[in-house]
Amino acid sequence: MTDTSHDIETFASENDCDVIVFEYLDKMKTPKGFWGAKKLRFKLRYWRKKGIQNKVTEMAHYLGMRMSRVNARNTSALAYDGSGKVERNNKKDLATFTTGKVYHADLSASYNIGARYFVRGIQKSMSETRWLSLQAKVPEVAKRTYTTLSSFTSLTKGLEAPKAS
Prior knowledge:
Elements: H1 2-14, E1 19-24, H2 37-62, E2 66-71, E3 87-88, E4 94-96, E5 102-104, H3 105-124, H4 128-137, H5 149-160
Parallel strand pairs: 1-2
Antiparallel strand pairs: 3-4, 4-5
Helix pairs in contact: 1-2, 3-5
């Protein structure tokens, strides 16, 4: 746990990061069909993830970095390019997009996590009226659990588009 926490913190420091973004895992529930030792292993993995996040939070605050958490729903289930749900292989490490492209599932998820952080920042920085007009141009950002990297790029293009007077 400490090695992972230190590696994350070291990487963030070396790259002059201001914010470290994690998935929000506090409400994670045991899936149906998990019982006995399988349920215990699931719980232990969850506690380990929580411990790593807490340790990284502590170290980041010590170094003056901020922490943020985004909704974990669909981060790895949706393709970062906006092509929809992905099919995972047996090891769950590769994702096949509906376009046929094969990509690493964790990298695709990290793109989506970062995009959700920035979309939330954009939404908070503007009035509700302006956000709704922008949302009309980019309907993918209406539901934050379906936000991907492609919806973030569409949103930034929508922000750059000239306003009709």
